[in-house]
Specification:
With 180 residues, this protein is of the alpha+beta class. Helix content is 28%, strand content 32%. It has one domain: Gcn5-related N-acetyltransferase (GNAT) (Aminopeptidase). The protein is globular.
Length: 180
């Protein structure tokens, strides 16, 4: 049985920050999906979460059942701070190692996309660390993202140069109409 069969996705709460911090710390220490080199602590992760929520954007968690452990999280943030970018968001999805490759990331990202579209966003960008990050690239492709570019040798981590893969997906009417 897949974890996705007993998955509950909900808005994050302050009580989730410890689990969120631990999941992200593992991604920083062990992975190339983020280019941070030192894991931030709970205070910093709480500040980041509060910043996203203050913008009216979603920060979601996936749990094993309605009251279970946090298996992963996803949030959307502004791609850039300038006002003209306000309808273009960037997604972030991180999973506990035991939740990877079980459909949790796909369900989290699908819910994030739905909530951002309902909130009026028109474009979602995926800024994926490491061109070898096949799982993230595959999940985004499966949910309708298209390849939009590569930033070569954009980061240095674990003794090697890493690319950034850019992917993009239209939300709602996308660029076909002016925003409301």
């Amino acid at each position: 049985m897949s974890l996705a069969n007993d998955l509950h996705i909900r808005p994050s709460t302050a009580a989730d920050v410890g689990a969120i911090t631990a999941i992200y710390a593992h991604a920083v220490r062990e992975g190339t999906g983020t280019f941070e080199l030192e894991p931030p602590g709970e205070t910093e992760m709480a500040r980041r979460r509060d910043d996203v929520l203050a913008k009216g954007l979603p920060w979601l968690v996936a749990t094993a059942g309605a009251g279970g452990a946090v298996l992963g999280y996803a949030y959307a943030n502004q791609f850039r701070p300038r006002p003209a970018y306000r309808y273009c968001l960037e997604d972030s999805v991180y999973l506990h190692p035991k939740a990877q490759r079980q459909g949790v990331g796909r369900l989290l990202l699908a819910e994030l996309l739905a909530r951002c579209e309902a909130g009026g966003a028109r474009q979602m960008l995926a800024v994926i660390g490491d061109a070898d990050n096949a799982a993230s690239i595959g999940v985004h492709r499966a949910l309708g993202f298209e390849h939009s570019g590569v930033l070569h040798a954009a980061g240095w981590k674990f003794g090697r140069w890493l690319e950034v893969v850019m992917m993009q997906r239209r939300l709602g009417a996308g660029e076909t109409t002016p925003p409301a």
